[in-house]
Amino acid sequence: MKKLKxxxxxxxxxxxxxxxxxxxxxxxxxxxxxxxxxxxxxTQQLHLTSDEAKRFWPVYNQYQDELQALRKNRKEDRQDxxxxxxxxxxxxxxxxxxxxxxxxxxxxxxxxKYHAQFKQVLPIKKVALLYRSEEAFKxxxxxxxxxxxxxxxxxxx
Length: 157
Fold this sequence. Notes:
Layout: H1 2-20, H2 26-46, H3 50-84, H4 90-121, H5 124-149
């Protein structure tokens, strides 16, 4: 019964995440698939109880939304800087660097804010496992991308 409840919570969360995305956008579909994969990966790694899942996923989704909004703005700024880099003055280059440092600080501020909230809804070991699992997911995703670009060839140790 607990597993059924957990499955229902996870299914609801996945459906909510999918509903937020724009299905007509190819990049959006890729992003949607990655989010679904990430939810599944974190669910498997964290072994959340039904109660933990009900409390954790809304907080985690807010965390991801804030990071995504911050990163979207950064992506636009970085593209402008990349397109104009050769013609930039020193003052403009300094602004680009300062903006990058401000971005990293904002990202850290968001992490600190949600770290406190994660500790309220999960035991500290699961919070630590969350951070480790996010990094493991990034590594796995990068490896899949590399394998796909190399025609599926596996990396040699």
